């Protein structure tokens, strides 16, 4: 009965967000009033990196943020925004204020319900255990985490089937001691699996050959129920390398996908990865940033019968309008340099949009120096339209990492961008005429409390949307919190979850313009309301 | 052999004339090694500087070769200056007869300074490498030399470099925008002409369409070794045009592992390798290093090779844009097999003639003219990229293989290879004819 009512509601929904021309998103920059005053700085060893991590560490539902500072100490800010209000943060000591930080990712490693943080650095990486109330303490020794002494530029985590503890992969860049011959000196990436039968990590294993990744993502690209490890590698520094994907199976050594498996030879300046099922076929598309043309990959031959997929991807960036290969505005038309990337629906029309952070590596005159960020808004036909200038986020600062999330819990995705040698920028989404939305948070018993690796599907009259809950990707930047979906004019959405390693669960109804906690142990979604 | 003996004699004579210590002689003996070290740095920079497509790389190799050669020739009694022999190269600044100089220091200084100019656009890592290389090699060059020699040599090196850079500025290739892809270009809609072959937005126009109009170095102009037209476009299966496409298709559909290895070995993709001209510079580098060649020999070989390959690319590009010929991937997909894919990435510019063939023909001709026709060598250029090594009975055999690699790779028809090699051999004669040695 409820399902039938939902269907009627879907049919009755207006057509404002089903139009061919997308609603133009609007952002207002609140950098100067936000309380965030962080700058990512540093010479050669900080030419890459510059990430941020957004997560709720005090239980108020609002995402707090940690921003890497490069040579300078990182800065942590607690979110003081009111629902729908101006973005307001307060700097606070957290224990996360490390120098030499390139980026960070939130993850509840020990499954205690309090977010921990993996800090990537030039030097030793550090896992920080959350103690509550946004305080953290070093846990490398307690958890057996091997911090190494590399130049770390990528991270991804997954819970392999049956494990209570995550498997963490760290991507390392070149040997920073090689002054005369740095090229070809990519240092080994490593993966740490849980220690059998105990909490904590086992000894790290090298993921070699290693080709200087600037992004990694554990992702279930073929709906096998198991995530493989995709890497975006920087061709500037490897010799004989290419893009990589490692097959990661429980109890087995990681194994590279090869040409014989169908893996296609691709060599780009891989800098960031994000995934989203854009075409609704059940298989994710992957956007990979680079210099000049960026890539949008889709499975070349997606199985129609649910059979095994080959890891052969084709590039559809051009027909989809997302090459973003050079500045779309201004006088500087040299090739672009792209870093952080994420899919988020910024106008709530039910279609995922793409944000790309842009910025010159470091005074490379063959590439654009004034390189505006991109906000590629998806149209109903599946193509994307550049709207960063109209939306007010086409900053030409030297961008690196970033976070797209709803900082003030008004249902609109806000934007934080980390810049090199310039202040981190913060924009509040104020899009007039934006559609309805839902935001969900997953929880389940066991070690993987936040259901990393789950797929969330949302159905409305506008169609099907689906995204994977991941820990990794982007450019040294991660987010953990509410999963946002725009739903256009729909008043409700039908939501179901494919919990990690399992089949799809039963659909649940979530009302528009509200927050819902989806607990695996409960049959219905639980509404949640911010307390300010 | 004669050149080596002459070089050695010159070094001894110079040391005796100047009455310098044995350490100067040692520094001069190290000159060849220092110059080769700079070439190693340049090979890395070519790979890691975004504007360095093969034609642009060949231009840098030519100017750097001339600069190093003139560094030595400017104080030599046996090497002849190239002033008046190369197009546009008029009087270069002379050394001060009242001062004492070190050829090795001048060469180091010229290379350090010129490399910074030619690779000024490289990224932060390249900048760091240049600075580290300058520091290290300067130390090696200057070791134990008297202060007046160092001072005079460094000053002269800067002066000579400035003159070479000044000469380079108006050759048509000094400014590369958008990595060589023009902002506007009308792609022909006529069948048989080049059309874009990839989904990369930047490459929807062809690379460096005016490069063939650049001032050449030793040959009179880009049109000096013109080529006959390639087969006329036809969709008739009995036509010569169709036959050449069918040959590429048939060969690539039955590639043997050895042919795949050959295609990959000579692929020499820009930004993923030191490019085709860099490949031949690497071959020469290893040859010179193996025989511990002195500064004179190293400078002369690199100069002739650089000039010949730069002229090769100018001549090749002149013909490419004269004929604006279609690539195999376009033809085969349209006429033979829509699902066919070449082994190699099709370069984003017209097909005829093959650039790798032209410059390999030119390079092999130059090296053959210096060392003879039967120099067997092992090419280890790509070992670090996991492509192994290949052995050749002669430079000509290597050039022929480089040419055929383009058919195995599915990116060239046979006429482009055969005519390219021939064009290269023709163009090389101008570099070979440069007078570098004074009469005995």
Automatic annotation (TrEMBL), chain A:
Signal peptide: 1-18
Keywords tagged on the record: Signal
Domain ASPIC/UnbV: 451-501
Pfam families (alphabetical): FG-GAP_3 (PF13517), UnbV_ASPIC (PF07593)
Superkingdom as given in the UniProt entry: Bacteria
PANTHER family: CARTILAGE ACIDIC PROTEIN 1
Protein name per the record: ASPIC/UnbV domain-containing protein
